Each structure stands twice: as structure tokens, then as C-alpha cells.
Fold each of these.
Amino acid sequence: MDERAGGVPGAGERARSGPGTGERARRAGSSPADARPVLIQGGMGVGVSGWRLARAVAMTGQLGVVSGTALDVTLARRLQLGDPGGHLRRALAAFPVPEIAERVLSRYFVPGGTAEDVPYRPVPRLGLRGSRARDEVTVVANFAEVFLAKQGHDGPIGVNYLEKIQLATPAAAYGAMLAGADYVLMGAGIPAELPRLLDELAEHRDGRISVTVAGGEGHTVGLDPVALLGRRLAPLARPAFLAIVSSHVLALYLARSAATRPDGFVVETPVAGGHSAPPRGRMVLDPAGQPVYGPRDEADTAKVAALGLPFWLAGGYGTPVGLERALAAGAEGIQVGSAFALCRESGLDPALRRRLRRRAGLVRNDPLASPTGFPFKVAALPGTLSEQDVYEARPRLCDLGYLRTPYEKADGSIGYRCPAEPVDVYVRKGRPAEEAAGRRCLCNGLLAAIGLGQHRADGYTEPPLLTLGQDTGFLTDLPDDHSAADVVAHILLGAHL
């Protein structure tokens, strides 16, 4: 593969590295960021894969990944809590256009933090109509998260996005690139336009992608970096792009053309945490109400390998034996999520993380929970949205809207709807009530899982929603309060490489 700015760095023999090895093995160049990782730490949840976790993984020489989902609201809420430790203010002080960072700070920072009964101030909601305030906070938030993840080491840092949240992608990706993200990863859809978008943003050109609008076509969303910043900066390093796929069919589709070809793939199985692709063909549920997957849902790794692009396997591979299996299949290595979600540096609320570790085997692949329509892994934990009574007691509302679907109204204007919003509202927007049955508000639930749930003056607090992979056998080999470095050492040093 050409060693161009958009290619996966490195071209020699596979790098092997681990904590405590001194001089890390490298493919090429003078830093671990120039080497293909053996381990990719998954980009999980809203803030579970935060900068602290990604930084800890990158310090071992492996690929640390921050979750790029809803970083605007996480930044805004942490600033309203007073920015404990001053980390966000330190990152914003490094933003290349100080006046933009100052506007974000003045809008959201509360010295000492807001009172517990004061609701968080909202961020502008995603939409097709342009909003300078929304673009500014999105760009700044993604910059800050990647900037902090990259401090104090020379390891590689990536950022993970969901293709489903198309409306945020151009501004979010640009912010991460301003901070020097080495990789961009994207799943939950068909990320065919990402290679071109990253090329455009690296040159500070107006970057646009298509937006799926129900009942309409020809809609796009984009970002003009020069108009936003008020100046043209020097060209940015274009990060490598890894497409997260669940089948070799999608990998072949994306690799067919230079315009859509990623720099590599992460191939996930259905047991991976968070969202998973639905089974191919008619949906069949097992006695527990979970989707049944069969041979048609298994990716043919030989066909992926034949594409000549590097790939990593994910979902049930987070052990030394799993790594050996992946390497034997021709993969560069593996992506690991759940083991990192339960480590000390995870962004999960510490009390919830400790409780979840004790009950990690109780994870259900719920076909209804997510408003996206994709099956979603829900970890069973008392007091969370996994429980029916907690779900029913929560007032249905959609006040964040990251998973809303744009749709074209009869008059040609654009509306937005979400199956997790009030059922009568959803029906008035032209959809059947059955589509809303059982839907959880992932946006609010996942924010609550990292300690940033909305609280209101009447005492109401959003309940958390937790997700984890369904293969948790790795826990028996890790200390009770394990670190990210423990995970890396266990997998790399335990495998017979």
C-alpha cells in the first residue's frame, strides 16, 4: 500500500508491543504512531472511551480510541460542573482560534460548578440547518478530547464515530483532526463518504456528506473550515480511516472503489458490545427474545484478507487465545472493548462500573432498545433502564436528539422524529405506534452512565443505561480493579506470538 497521508501508517512486518518491553517494536518511522497496532481499544458508549482511557492504552504503544459520540454535550456538562482538574480549560487554551474557544467557555463554564438542582444548559441540537454555535462547540469538544488523549506520550490515538449520527460527522471529524487524531473509525452504517470527507477536511476545504432523509433525497451536511475559523491553517495530517463492518459483503462493497475504500477494517461479530447489525434475512428471536444469528451472519475473513487491506477482528476476541485466532486468520490483531470498559480508566461512573463488573455476564442483545433499529446490548443492573419498571417510570422525551431521523414533511420542510420520544408525538409525525414500543432513550441513558445525566429542579434525575459485550470470560484472568495496561499485558504477553 502507498505510504500516503491517507494510508495506514507503516508497511513492514507486524509490530509487537506491550507494557514493560522497553523499546517498542515498530513497523516504520520513529514513533509508535507510525506502527500498526496489534490491539485497538474500542470506542465505547458516550464518554466510556474518554481521553483518560485512550491515553492509558496509547501509552502502552497500542491504539487508544476516544468515543466521538455526543462530545459536545459531555464537554458542555463537564464545564458546567466546574471542569474539575482544569483539563478541559487546558485543552481549550490550545485551540488554534482562541476566540472560538473563549465563546464556548463563556457559554458553558461555571466556576465551582452548578448546584445539583440546576439543570444542565443544553447545546444546540443537530439539524440540517446550519448553526455556527453548534459547529463551534462540536469542533472544540472533539479537539479537546483528542488533545487530552495525546498528551504525554507518542502513541497512536483514534476517534470513533457512528455513521448513524451523520449530522455531526463533518464538524466532529474536523475538530479531532485539528488535534492530530491518527485514526478515525466508523461503524453503525455504511461509511462510504468518509475517505473523501477526511481528504477535504485535511486541506481545510468545505467537507460535505450525504444525509439520509426519510421521504426525501439530495440532502447534505457539511463544514467550511475557513468560514468557521476565519482563517486558513496549514494542511492537516489526514488520519487513517478504519471502517467497522460486520460482514465481508460490506467490506467488499467499500473496497471496490478508491473513492470509498478505507485504509483498513474492524470486523465485528454479533457478541460485540453496543450496537450490532441485525441478522441477515427474517428476524428470528430465541426464547429470551434475542436475535438469532446464523452462518449467513459470519464474516468470511478469508475474503476480507483477500482485499489486501489490514483488518482487525472484534467481538469475543479479547483474550490471548482470541488474539492468536485473529492472527491465524490473517488479521493485524484485535479490537477489545468490554475489558477496557471495566478498567480503572474507563469513563463509566465508578460505582456503576464496580457493580457492572460483578454482574458482567448478564447482557441481553435487545432488538428493540435502540431507536436506531439495530440490536443493542443492554447490561442488566438494578436501578437502570434495563429494568422494566425503571423504563416505564421514566417520562418519554427526546431532548438531546442525536439519534433522531430527519424526514421530509408533506410541505417539503424537514422534521425530526425518534422512536424513543412520546408515542403520540411520534405517531403525529407519520409513524406507527408499534415502532416506539420498548425503545430506550440511549442519549440520556448513556450520559447518565458516565455521571452526566440530566437533573431537574423537581428532583428528577435521568436513570443510566449500560452496555457491554456478551463475551466476558476475560474477567477471570484480570485483577478485580484492573487497569488498561493490565488488559494489554494480559493479552499480548499471554499470546504465543
Amino acid sequence: MRIDKNPDVIEKYFEDRVGLGTSFDLDIRKLVILKKRVHLYTLNGLCDSLMITEIMKELQKLNDTEKVTSKQYELIENRLSSSSVEPAKTMDEMVDQVLSGLMAVVVEGADRALIVDVRNYPGRQPEEPDTEKVVRGSRDGYVENIIVNTAITRRRIRDERLRFEIMQIGERSKTDVAIGYIKGIANPRLVHTIRKELEAIDIDGITMADKTIEEYLMKQGYNPYPLVRYTERADVASIHLLEGHVLIYIDTSPSVMITPTTYFHHVQHAEEYRQSPSVGTFVRWTRFIGIWASIFLLPFWYLFVMDPTYLPEQLSFIGPNEQSHIPLIIQLLIADLGVEFLRIAAIHTPTPLSTAMGLIAAVLIGEIAVEVGLFQSEVILYVSIVAVGTFSTPSYELSVANKMVRMFLLLCVAIFKGPGLIIGCTLYIIYLAQSKPLDAPYLWPLLPFNPKGLFNILLRRPVPGAVLRPSVVRPQDRFRQPPKN
């Protein structure tokens, strides 16, 4: 429906379709400028009231300084003191903009409305993300405002080829979603694929923001492993842009989606690049050991307990010395789930009480459970080591997926012993290898094997030595630094 030249018709449309007069936060301000009716539509809470007041003052001055003319629309457009003023030709477009926090100015006799950017979204200031802390580095992070997030990114990459393509997704929520990439580096086919998949999303709303987008984009199904990487750090997002990745910004979400990603993207952390290459490599390998322990330590230990012949004589001390009435596999599963209970409880526990909850868990679940014979002390020891490895995993989604695989391997060992562990590990690797999110092999550079890529995964190379961009994203410009002659 095109915009009517009669403001009363537009007001009636807002009353019937949008809830003007019913919803307390939807406002209309009626003015008479040069003998023409002018209506201003705004949404309380998303608009800057001071800016609206200044605009109304400027419009009312026209009655004192200008004569009645046929060009009232142009005069009003020139007096709108805002950095962004765009025309709207349809009612749907105008309503969408008003509900997004912009102001619509309707002039009697004009078949177009003026959309003025007076947004002032409520939200917090950029601060360091709790899940991606570093010892030394920037303390700003993404927030729930997409405008702030793109601005923080542009502060780090001032390239004229940096692009942010914005669209609205959700028939009712109309959530702003932006695709971020660097033209000339990012693969155009990748950008086109992501744009096409986002435009094809047909849903009433994406109030769960990034996770909803991921499930539509990746067709994840019941795959527990994360197929995109989330980050709340602007420096992490910026370095991935420079590598040729495509980022997805979703309004109301402080997390930015990095695509495409592999398994090894989820085990890296910004701290490695805030230290010297040798220290960064040490930190990286320490984290790798923790992640591997979180997957394989319990299944291997349980195998050695079930069949001590696998152990050399020097390690014959491994395994519980006392028998228990509760099967060992049951103890392991209960203790492992108990750690997950504690992690879930910590999320829902107010910060002042979390310390007390940890002490109660250590005393009651640890010591008393062993004394009464519910758990054997060695079970608590290895489950605790595995829990530390789980917490050292940078990606929360990856740590939970690894926990599920660990339980699967434990059951394989309990049923088939040694062959079960071999078969379980083989199925695990095959399952990861067959995943190709956005046509990127999930286990690259291990499978398919890429020596240079694997070397960069195992060692944190000095920045001057990182000449090439990762080939997994198929960048247009392969060189991060000019090649030496």
C-alpha cells in the first residue's frame, strides 16, 4: 500500500494495523507547518527524545521564517536535523522503520514519508566478555546493539572495502542481520551463499538471534558439534575478517558468528596472540592437552581398569585398590553428570552465592561421597582432571559436545572393552571428517591433510611469518603480506 497524501488516512492505518492509541509506547505528534498538517510517528524507548524535541523546534521555526509555498515537503526535509533522512514510499516500509526506532514524518499532500534516524537503543556499554578474558589486551567487546558492533569493528579495520550488508529477518520480529566481509579478500561465492541462505529464512521471529540463524544456515539437525564460531571480542572478529571469513551480526545478540569454521577454530583463544610466539605455543599446547584429556582420559583409564593387561608393569598402580558395590561405569557416569550439574547450577546461581555452592559441592559431593562408598577416590580424581580439561576448552558448545562423545566412548568400552574403544574413536573421527559446514572440511588441515595449515595450528607462528591466509576459506587474495622478491 502506497502512502496516502491525507495524514488522516495514515493515522487510521496506524490505529487499525499498528495499535496507535492502544499501545502506550507508540506516539503521534501533530503539527501545522506552513498551513500543512505534519504528523510525527515515534516509538518510546527506542528514540532519542531530546533529538525529537530539537527537530520539532526547527520545524516550527518555519512558520516564522518561511512563506507558504508549494514546496513544503522539500523545506521540511531540509530542516530535519539528522544525519540520516530517507524517503519511504509504502506504508509497510514506514511501519517497519517506526517499529525499528526511527521517526516517520508525514506531510499533507506528499505521497512519501520522511524516515529520520533518531534511534537510541537501550543497552550496556562495551566491556570485556566474561567467556573470553585475556591477561593483557583490549577490554571492549560486542554488545546487543548491531550499530555499536559494526562501529567497533570499523574502528579496527578502516579499509574502504569492508562491507556490511544489512537485511531484516522474521515476519514479525524483523530483526536486523548484517553480513560483514572484506571485498577482495572474502570468497564471493561464500558471501553469495550466506546471503541467499539468510534471505530464504521464513519464520515469524528470531528472538533467539544467533542460534536460530545458525540452525537455518548450517542445517545442523542433531549434530552436537558447533559449525560456526561465536565471539564477543572485536579483535577476534577482525582478524577473521582479514583472513577471509564472513561474519554475521545479529541485532540483540552480543555474539558475532564467524563462518566458515573448522574444529580447530574452536580450540584457539585470543590469549595465545597476546603473548610471545613461544609462550603462545605453550599455552596452546597446554589447552590441547586439556581438551584431549576431556575426551579420552576417562575411556582409557576405564579400559585399563577393566583389562590391566594393557598396562605396562611400571603403571600397574593405575586402577582402584578396593572393590565397590556400585559398578565402576555407573560411578563414572554419575560423577561426570554431577560435574555437569554443578556447571549448570553455577550459571543459574547469583555470583555472591557461587563460591558457597562450590565449597558445598567440594565437601559434600567429594569427601563424604567417598567416605560412604558411593564413589571411589580414584574416580573422583580422574573425573576432576577431565572437568578441568572441559573448562579449559574455549568454546562452550565444543566442551559439551566433547562430554557427549566421552560418555559414548565410555559405553563402548563398557560393552566391547578394547575393540569398543577403537571402534568408537574411529566412528568419532569419521563423523567429524564427513562434516563440511559451508563446504569447509571440519577437520582441516588434518583431513584433508595440509602441512602448512597444520603447522600453523600446532605452533603459534610470529606475525611477520604469517604470509598466507588460510586456504580453507578460499580467499581471493592469498597474501596477508606482500610476497618478498
